[in-house]
Structures are given as structure tokens and as C-alpha cells.
């Protein structure tokens, strides 16, 4: 297992290099002049040219990227061009709110999706099964921003059950827990559908296996058969799906954070791109890429727990 994790870490190096290169090139396509933004609208051209030289923007793109890559390898993500604050400090303040949002989403969406999928498999062909499939398709097809707006209007504005702008505090406080409800619900409603459908499909395949028929022949209750003999084997493709959907989850977090003014990495990345703050935007993109790789490493560890044969492979 350790060898597999080491191989994954080695294979992540070219992925991170590609992310750095793609993020750098995409930032060059954004219209606007960073030096002009920093200097202000009334600055003369000489001042703008001096700022461009200080920032190294007058050099060729390969030279700029090589310099940026060298700084990243040394752990230096640069300084925000707009705020004049180290990018690492900005990321340190935004990573935990994003982690709170993703964890709060997974805590309720994954168990709910697994439960709905198992319930649909137990009632295959019935109205419960059809209703769960229909709800899963609706959740999968509906944009994240639509869920956000509906929850914000009704639960936040009309009924005033939960706050819907900003982060009230850490998640372990009552104010923070109350403030994360609507963003976590928004993100989870789009995530629960694929989990439910995959759980249903995998459970139906396992339910026809020999060991499941043997368990039923012993007189075990259907709930016991489902929990101990079906779901344990059916969860392996579900865990794979969760890992593959990590990119979607982080992408959805960007939209959710922007709508709810949640001070996370996604909202910071959007603001940095709009302001053409290249170091901050590239640092945020790098942080999201590392988070995606870390989630996939956790998926590999979950394989070993669910299927001991992975350790012997």
C-alpha cells in the first residue's frame, strides 16, 4: 500500500507542473494590464513601465514562467499584486473555510446518497425506486447556482432560518454551524444524486452474488444482509465516484462561495482573476489542484479499508 501511495505521489508531480503551466498561460489571456491597475488611472506611462519592469512583466513568457516555477519550488508563491500581501498568507486564511464547506457537504451528502441508493435497490422496480431515480436525475441536472438562489430566497430571506452571506465563525461554534448550513446544502444537493445512483447500481450487482444468497438462506433479516453483506462490497465503486467527483465538488465550491460570499479559496480565486492578480490566482489554482490530489490519495486509503485485497496487490 505504501508503494502505491509513493507511486501516486510521484505521478502527481507532472500533474502539478501541468497545472502551473496551464494556470500561467490562462492568466496571460485575461485582458487588462496589471501594471496599469497597480499604478492607477492617473499614472504616467513612465510609472507604468517602471512597475512592469519591477514585476518582471517586460520579459518573455518562458522567462517569466521559469522564474515563477523556481519560486514555487522554493516555497515562495509570491506577493499579491493588488493587496501587497504574501500569497501564502492569503491562502492560509482561505483554505480552512473551503475545507469546512467541503467537509460539511460530504458529511451529509455521502451518507444520504448511500442511504437513498440502498433504499432504491431494496425496492427495485417500485415507486420508491422510481422516485429516488427521478430525484437523483433532477439533482444531477440542476445547476448549483439554482439551488443556491432557491435556498437563499426561502430559507434565508423569507423564512430567515439561516444566514446566507459570509462566514459567521468557525464550524465548531453555534454561529459558524448555523452559517454553513445553506452553502453545505447547496453543494450537497448536486452531489447526492450521483452517489445515490452509483450505490443503487452497485448494490443490485452485489445482491445477486452467492454470498448474499447464502446469507438470506441462513434466515438473516434483509436489513442485516444489506448492511453487512451488500453495502460493504458496493461501497468500493461509490468511493471511486466520490474521488472522481472531487473536481466537480471543488468547482461547485467556487460557485457556492461566490454566491454566499464565503471567504474560501474559490471566491478568492475568482476575485484574483477578475483583478488580474496573477500570483494570487495561480496560488489559488495550485491549492485547488493539491486538494484534488489529496482527495484521491484518501480514496486509495479507503480502498484498503473496504477491500483488504488491495494491500496484497
Major sheet description: none
**Number of DSSP helical runs:** 15
Unreliable stretches (pLDDT < 50, length at least 5) are none
Q: In angstroms, what is the radius of gyration?
A: 24 Å
Please tally the β strands and state the result: 0
* Helix-strand topology string: HHHHHHHHHHHHHHH
**Percentage of residues in DSSP E strands:** under 5%
How would you sum up the global shape? elongated
**What do the pLDDT scores average to?**
82
- Report, as a whole number of angstroms, the end-to-end distance: 8 Å
In short:
The protein has helices at about 1-30, 35-40, 45-55, 60-75, 85-120, 125-140, 145-160, 175-180, 180-205, 210-215, 220-245, 245-260, 265-275, 280-305, 310.
What does this structure look like?
- The protein has helices at 2-29, 34-39, 45-55, 61-73, 87-122, 127-141, 144-158, 174-179, 181-207, 210-217, 222-244, 246-259, 265-274, 278-306, 309-312.
- Helix content is 78%, strand content 0%.
- With 313 residues, the chain is mainly α.
